[in-house]
Design a protein that fits this description.
The complex is a heterodimer. By secondary structure, chain A is mainly α. In chain A, 67% of the residues lie in helices and 0% in strands. Chain A contains 14 helices and no strands. The longest helix of chain A has 38 residues, at 3-40. Chain B has helices at residues 3-45, 49-52, 73-81, 101-108, 149-159, 178-188, 206-209, 223-245, 261-266, 278-291, 314-334, 345-378, 384-413, 418-427, 431-434, 436-452, 463-469, and strands at residues 60-66, 88-95, 111-113, 127-133, 139-144, 164-168, 173-174, 193-198, 201-203, 256-260, 297-301, 306-309. Chain B has 17 helices and twelve strands. The chains are: A mainly alpha, B alpha/beta. The A-B interface holds A 3-4, 7-8, 10-11, 14-15, 17-18, 21-22, 24-25, 28-29, 32, 78-79, 81-82, 85, 88-89, 111, 113-114, 116-118, 120-121, 144, 147, 231-232, 234-235, 238, 242 and B 41-42, 45-48, 50-51, 53-58, 115-117, 119-120, 187-190, 383, 385-386, 389-390, 392-393, 396-397, 399-400, 403-404, 406-407, 410-411, 414, 418, 421, 425, 428-429.
Chain lengths: 287, 470
Amino acid sequence: VDDGTLLVLACAAAGVTWLLFAAAIAWGRLRMAARRRAAREPVVHTGWPTEGAQPRSPAHGDEPRALLERGLRSSERDVRVAAITALGRLGARHEWAVDGLIEALATEADTPARVAAELDRLAPRPGARLAPLLGHPSDVVRFYAVRLLAGYPEPARHELLALTRDRSPNVRAAALEGLRPVGSPSALRAALACLEDTHPSVRAQAIRTASALGGDAATPFVARLLDDDSWWVRETAREALATSRDHAGTTVELALRSGIERARLATRQWSAPPGPDIDAGLTGAVP
Amino acid sequence: MSFEGVLRASVLACGVYLAVLYTSYIWLLAVSFVETRRRRRERAVDDLDVLTDSRFAPGVSIIVPAFNESVGLPGAVRSLLSLDYPEFEVIVVNDGSTDDTLERLVDDLDLVPADTTSREVVSTVPVRGYYRSASDRRLLVIDKVNAGKADALNAGLNHSRYRYVCGVDADMVFARGALSRAMREIAREPGLVVGLTSYFENARDPAASLADGVHFSGPETRPLFAFQTFDYLRAFFANRTSWARMNFMLCAAGPFQLWRRDLVEELGGWERSFTCEDLEFTFRAHRVLRERRRDYRIACLPDCVGVTEGPDSVRKLVAQRERWQRVVLETCWANRRMWFNPRYGTVGMLGVPFFIISEILAPILEVLAIATLAAGGVTGRIDWTDFALLTLFVAFANSALTAGALLMQDREARAYRASGIARLLALMPFELFLYRPIMGWARLKGTWRFLRGDRAWHKFERNVRTEAAA
C-alpha cells in the first residue's frame, strides 16, 4: 500500500467518524423527541392485564421492605444509594421506610449527610425515633442525629443537654445549636458553660446560643470572648454583640406575626427580665 | 546531513508528533465516553437534589475578583445571589479598579459601609474598606489596592466563612442551579473531593445568553464564537472529564474553581507571581497532595454552570490565548520536577507529559511544519496531492474529536437548538483553516513573551463595554 492510499484511507476513516458522531447526535435528538411525544399521550389500550394496575394486597407489603433492606446491605454503592433514594421517597407514606433510613444512618450505609438529608425532608416524622442514635458510638452518627433533632428538640431535650459535654467537638457544637429553640434556663446554663470550651467551633456556637437565649444578660460573658485566640470566636462574639438588639426586635416581630413556637419561646427570653433560674444560670456557669 | 535528510527528519518528527497527539486524543475521548456514561447511571439512581436543598448542604463562599468590570459585574453578582442553593455567601473583591466598578456596585446593589475583620490566613495588599448589601446580607464587597487576581482571591479567602470556596470570574453569568450541581459531586464523596470545576458556555454577551438564569439561548454560531465553543467542548468533555477519571485533572478553570477551604489555606492561597492563578494552583494542589500521600480527587463535571464572555475579535482572542500559553509554560516549568516522575503517579506520568506534548511542543512543531512545507515547496520536493490529503485528514480528525465532545455535551444537557448543532457540525472541518492559524500565532506570541519574562495580564476590553463606548 503506497502513501497516497494510506492517506485516502485515513481521510475516509476520520470523515466517517465525524459523520457517525453527527448521526449519533441526530439519533439522540430523535429519541428524545419520541419520548417527549409519548409522555404527552394519554396511556390507553396498553394491552396490560388490568390487575397489574391494582394496589398490591397486604400480603405483598413486606416485599419492597425486604428488597430495600437487602439493598442497604449491598456491596455495590449504586445499589445502596438507590435503596436510600427509594426509602426517602417511600418515607412519606410508610413508617417502615423511615425506620429503614434511621437504620441506614446508624449503620453508615452511605454518606451520612445523604441519609440525614432524606430524614430531614421527612421531618417531623422521624422525631423521637432518632433519640437512640444520640448514644451511638460513632461521632459521625451522633453528630447527624443531633443536627436532625435540632429541628424539633423536645423529644431529646435532656440528651441534647448531656451532649454539650460529648467527647466530639462537632457533637458539642451541634448540641448547642440544637438547644437554641429549647429556650430553657438549663439550655442557657449549658451554653454559658461551653463558652469556656477548648474547641473554637464549640465556643462560637455557644456564643450564638447564649446570645439567643440570654439576650442582653449574656452580653458580659460573650464580651469576654472578643479577645479570644480564634478569629472565628472573636468574629462571632463581635457579630452577636453588634446585632443582638436588632435580632431581638426581629424575633419579637416574627413571633407576633406567625406565632411559631420556636420564636415564641425565644421571645419569652428576650422580652422578660431574667428570672431567678436564668440568673442562676448566668452566675453559676462561668466562674 | 544533506538537505534531503533534514527535510525527511522534519517530516518524520511532524508525523510522529501527529500520531502521538491523535492517539492520546482518541484514548482521552474514549475514557470520557465511559466517564459520562457512568455519571448518567449515577444520576439515575441518586436524587442529590434532596441534599443540595437541605440544611445539610455544605456552605460555600463565592469569591469574585473584579478589576474594571463596571459593566458586567452587577449583573454577575445578581446572578450569583439568585443561585438555587441553601447556604452561601458572595464576596466581591474590587481589586483597585480605575473605573467606576465600586460606585456601580454601591448604587446597584444597595451597599453600605460595613465593619468586619480579616482572618489573615494569607497575606495580601491593604484593604481600603468593606461594604455589605443592605438588602442582602450574604453579599460582602472588599475594596482593596490593586495587586492582581490571585491577591484578590486571597483577600476573599481571608474573609470566607464556609467550608468551600468558589473562585469565579466577574464576566460570567451563572445558571441558577450552578452551585447545586457542583456541590452534588462533593456531597457524594465529601472526604475525597477537594476541588472541582465544571463546564461553562461561551458567548458574546453572557447576560443576554442566559437571561432567565436557566435556559441558554446559544450556541453562538458566528464562526469566531463557534470555534471557541469547540475549544471549550474539547477541553471539558474530551480532556478534563477523562483527566478527572484518571485523577490528573490539571486545570480547575478560573471562571469556576471550587476548592475545600482548608486545602487552599494549607497551600498558602493562590500564588501571585504567576500570570494566571488557576492552572498553577491546580498543579500545586496535585503536587503537594501527592507528596503528602493523601487520598484526594479533583473533579470536572459536565454540567453547565454559566456563560462566560468570549472575545469577539481576533485581536482580543490572541491576547487571551497568548496569556493562556504563557500560563501553561510558567506552570509546567515551575513544576518541572513532576515531569515523568512516578512519585506523582498519573499526574507526573500522564498529565504533565500530555500538557508538554499538546501545549508546549505544539508551537514548535507548527513552526517546524511550516518551515518544512516552505522548504519542500521551494525545492519541489512536496507531493501536493499527499499534502492535500494529509490536510484533509487533520481537518476531519479534528472534526471527529469535536463532534465526539459535542455528542457528550448534547447527551448531558440537550441545551442547544437542533439548528445550532447543525451549524456547529458544518463549521467543524473549517476550524483547521480559519481558527488554528490564529491559535498558532497566539501560542507563538505567548511562548515568546514567556521567554522574555512577561507576566502582565493584558486585559482586553469587554464586548459590551466596547459597544457602549462606540
